[in-house]
Specification:
The chain contains 10 helices and 5 strands. The protein is of the alpha+beta class and 261 residues long.
Length: 261
């Protein structure tokens, strides 16, 4: 089903490229089971292509796929719909500090702090009411996909020995294909402000740590320079960012703890 849905999305993109021959978009390196990354990369390319103007996407019912998603996660639909009402220039102009990533640094606390500033700018209290982990993934992936030098993949399928197929939240590849290629493997977790008790945050940290350490052993990362991180968000604030699977794991020192209720 994943492959067939990817083909359906690709068919629409190819038709768009035929009608707009000056629009350049190559998706040869996108996994054919990852239609989400394909579509998000297309949107990022379109934003660079047309600073003004609207893109209308018509989605026909695909074996009740859309209806099933909406019925299972209405909050996700509400949140993404409300986010789209925000002026696009706010989303585009607010910057993330990706210098630590581009430099291959192990301390990415500055990046985490900039995620807090970015999310605080684009999210209204109304949006945060319907916030979810998936929305957090989608928003950060879309923003990172527009950064030059960063190849961002969302829900990347991985083959983990003894565990089967797993899906990593964010995989950021720096200098892809070069000798100094570096991969940041990030597991994101989210808790609403009202639910962000100390026990809840610790539980999410433990869950994210276990998952990201498992994903790091995937066959796709064999022989590659991979740094794994757990990032925990409470509302729009990143309250924890720690590197996993090494002795330097710690909370990002510049971050303040969440307000517990």
């Amino acid at each position: 089903m994943y492959d067939s849905f990817f083909s359906a999305v690709a068919l629409g993109i190819n038709d768009f490229k035929k009608r707009y021959p000056d629009f350049i978009f190559n998706y040869d390196n996108v996994s054919k089971s990852d239609s989400v990354t394909l579509f998000n990369n297309f949107i990022s390319a379109y934003i660079s292509y047309a600073d003004e103007g609207k893109l209308y996407v018509m989605i026909d019912e695909y074996d009740n796929f859309a209806n099933q998603i909406l019925s299972q996660d209405l909050d996700l639909f509400k949140c993404t719909a409300e986010l789209r009402l925000k002026p696009s220039d706010i989303f585009r102009e607010q910057k993330l500090d990706t210098d630590p990533l581009l430099d291959g640094a192990s301390d990415i606390s500055a990046f985490a702090d900039s995620c807090t500033a970015f999310l605080s700018t684009i999210f209204t209290n109304q949006v945060l009411t319907h916030m979810s982990e998936m929305v957090l993934n989608l928003v950060l992936h879309t923003k990172l996909s527009s950064v030059r030098g960063v190849v961002a993949e969302l829900q990347k399928p991985l083959r983990v020995p003894g565990k089967g197929e797993k899906f990593a939240d964010l995989v950021l590849t720096i200098n892809r294909g070069k000798r100094n290629e570096c991969i940041y493997l990030i597991e994101l977790k989210y808790a609403a402000k009202k639910d962000a008790t100390e026990a809840r945050i610790e539980s999410l940290k433990k869950e994210a740590t276990e998952q990201v350490c498992t994903y790091k052993s995937a066959l796709e990362f064999s022989g590659k320079n991979v740094m794994a991180y757990a990032m925990i968000f409470s509302g729009s604030e990143c309250v924890y960012c720690g590197r996993q699977g090494n002795r330097t794991e710690s909370d990002a020192s510049s971050m303040s703890p969440p307000d517990f209720y």
